[in-house]
Amino acid sequence: MKFYSITLIISLLCSFGYAQDMGFEEYSPKSTLVVPQNPVQSAKFKFIDIHSHQFNMASQDLSTLIREMDKMNMGVMVNLSGGSGAGLRAMLKNITDHYPNRFVVFANVDFGGFGTPNWGEQAAHQLEQDVKSGAKGLKIYKSLGLRYKDVDGNRIAIDDPRLDPIWKKCGELGIPVLIHAADPKSFWDPMDQHNERWLELKTRPRRKRSDTDPAPWQQIIDEQHRMFKKHPKTKFVNAHMGWYANDLKRLGELLDEIPNMSVGIAAVIAELGRQPRQAKAFFMKYQDRILFGKDSWRPEEFPTYFRVLETADEYFPYHKKYHAFWAMYGLNLPDEVLQKVYYKNALKLMPGLDQTLFTDK
């Protein structure tokens, strides 16, 4: 008869009991697949992160950010959360005083009082002042189309003509507009066994939407595209690939229809990493109109992006289980495409940046 230590028995019983009681959201299996592993901690080429958020840049010690950026080979961070007026100027001063060539700041619009006489003209004038102060672009949050209301309590549509002075001014100033509209369509779909974002919605129920909260997904997306087409002289960057990273055929059609639109890959690398052949073909075809971005500032998550874009690795984990429970595959993009995605396309979009930071080596 074999004798086992009481510690081992208790451990086995606890493990069995835990497994029996474990909820689906806790299930996180480790792959037994034996394939080459080539994790990438630093990008192959120095890159521009076109989609970052730093809300305290006016007062924070930028050297901490610089150390993290240098570790991953980030040349320039674009802070989309610049605000406007005095707050924006304070951010720009901190940058100018310490690292003037490593950070870019985009301005934001204050939608308070929307619908009052001459609101659009006044907002456009403020934006012009912010650009004179040093802002390099305009960031529009998803609140436009989802939450912002006019003085009469009505939802502000993205293509509301009262916004036209802003888009027109951006074209006149030659600055890009990076805009985030809506959220993934799965947030509008029924929360049932067929919804692949079910786990995310279960753990983050405030993300659930419906056709009346506040409007159908397609309606909001269509508003955005109509607005792009109405202002062909303005350069738009569609954040999160316009939530069409899971339908690259349709996204390609939109890029063909809207020549003044580019796309950023922030927060959709999980969609690209599960369709490597389709995604690589898309990157090859539209290589001049795709920009690197990450969104949330979590340095430990950037390697997933590098690995998807640069390697031919198979079946490696994504960094957020609730966001994507599927595994990633590398696109193994050629160097000339990587260079465009990492920095060349952004340099064309914002020609005033210090180009000496970027080389092909």
Describe the protein.
The chain has 361 residues and is an alpha/beta fold. The chain is 38% helix and 8% strand. The protein contains 13 helices and 8 strands. A 5-stranded parallel beta sheet has the order 4-5-6-7-8. Strand 2 (74-79), helix 3 and strand 3 (103-105) form a beta-alpha-beta unit. Mean pLDDT is 93; it is low at 1-10.
Main features:
about 350 residues, alpha/beta, five-stranded parallel beta sheet, three-stranded parallel beta sheet, 8 strands, about 40% helix, globular, disordered N terminus
Helix content: 25-40%
Question: What is the overall shape?
Answer: globular
Strand segment count? 8
- Work out the helix count: 13
Strand order of the largest sheet: 4-5-6-7-8
H/E series: HEHEHEHEHHEHHEHEHHEHH
Rounded Rg? 23 Å
Which regions have little confidence, pLDDT < 50, spanning 5+ residues? Answer: 1-10
Calculate the mean pLDDT score and round it.
Answer: 93
Largest sheet: 5 strands, parallel
**Termini Cα gap:** 66 Å
Structural class: alpha/beta
